Automatic annotation (TrEMBL):
SUPFAM superfamilies: Homing endonucleases
Superkingdom of origin organism: Bacteria
Name recorded for this polypeptide: Homing endonuclease LAGLIDADG domain-containing protein
UniProt cross-references to InterPro entries, sorted A to Z: Homing_endonucl (IPR027434)
Organism name: Candidatus Nealsonbacteria bacterium CG08_land_8_20_14_0_20_43_11
Length: 141
């Protein structure tokens, strides 16, 4: 099928395998990043994004995640593809769904970056950092 990445839509994924499917989507076409927001002191931001050439596929994925996990996300147009992105609170929920057990098949590089992001955020939440790190922290996967 030519241009399948732009024509893919809904998929039939059993609910019990959806976390594994989601992890595969993230490993293949996802990204995560974080930064200190300069507008607010001690505001650490992070996001998980899923990219696709197919808007209908991302709308379907967004609908399923809203149905299964009660998270909304936001679809935006990127330069070459569509992006479904989730901010901090919803990203934590996604992480729990994608990595529900230890030793699952995963792209280790992206998993480690997400774990680092969550560790930084946990320290910020618990205020165990002595102070805000002033230089921006960018962690890309």
């Amino acid at each position: 099928m030519p241009n399948k990445s732009k024509r893919i839509g809904e998929l039939k994924i059993p609910k019990k395998y959806f976390g594994d499917f989601l992890r595969g989507c993230f490993d293949g076409d996802g990204t995560c990043y974080s930064y200190w927001d300069p507008r607010w002191a001690s505001s650490f931001m992070f996001y998980i994004k899923f990219n696709s050439g197919s808007l209908s596929h991302l709308k379907w994925l967004q609908l399923k995640l809203k149905e299964y996990l009660r998270i909304k996300g936001h679809i935006a147009s990127g330069r070459r593809c569509w992006q479904l992105r989730y901010a901090k609170k919803e990203s934590r929920i996604l992480f729990g769904k994608m990595y529900y057990a230890e030793n699952l098949p995963r792209l280790e590089r992206k998993y480690k970056k997400l774990k680092t992001i969550l560790t930084i955020d946990d320290k910020e939440i618990n205020k165990s950092l002595p102070g805000r790190v002033m230089e921006p922290v960018y962690i890309y996967a």
